[in-house]
Amino acid sequence: MTDTALPAELASIRDDFLALPVSERLTLLLELSDELPEVPERYADAEFERVIECQSPVFITVEVSDGKVSVYAKAPAEAPTTRGFASVLVQGLAGASVESVLALPADFPFSLGITELVSPLRLNGMVGMLTRVKRQVAEHSA
Fold first, then answer.
1. Kind of pairing, strands 68-74 and 96-97?
2. How far, CA to CA in Å, does 113 sit from each of 6, 9, 55, 84?
3. What is the rounded distance in angstroms from the CA atom of residue 140 to the CA atom of residue 142?
4. At what angle do helices 120-141 and 80-92 cross, to 10 degrees?
């Protein structure tokens, strides 16, 4: 994967993971789970798409305005790993261009260097979140 395919903030988050010893990367993911931004009030009654690949109830929606992307996610505090990855996407894609989001490689979750720390089922959930974000961005920008 080349950095040219990643929005700057997402590349920075990925680099933060890779700068740590493998044994500390899960801690970073759990810290990011605490940083998942609250959904803005204007989305209180909006429809969010359920990410069925996730074991935990995770819901995603996107907004595209002036060619820039915002991702919003709802994930329970009891699912910190899943919530952490939702936070990676929400924070890493905030303000990214439509083109850069659509160019994201489907295997981005594997580039965080956490494959030996989380189960394949959780990684599948992470891929599911990214897939939905990209599909929704494509639909909103069509």
1. antiparallel
2. 16, 17, 21, 14
3. 6
4. 30
Smallest CA-to-CA distance from 111 within 127, 133, 128 is with 127
pTM (whole model) above 0.70: yes
DSSP, res 21: -
- Report the candidate in 113, 131, 140, 109 with the shortest Cα–Cα distance to residue 122: 109
Which candidate, 62, 12, 68, places its Cα nearest to that of 40? Answer: 62
DSSP at 3: G
What is the reported pLDDT for 4? 56
Q: How many beta carbons lie within 10 A of that of residue 8, not counting itself?
A: 12
How many other β-carbons are positioned within 10 Å of the β-carbon of residue 95? 11
Give tens-digit pLDDT for 71-115: 999 999 999 999 999 999 999 999 999 999 999 999 999 999 999
Q: Reply yes or no on whether the pLDDT at 47 is more than 70.
A: yes
Closest by CA to 93, choosing from 58, 60, 115, is 60
Q: What is the pLDDT of residues 15-24, one digit of tens each?
A: 999 999 999 9
The helix-helix angle for 8-19 and 22-34 (nearest 10°) equals 130
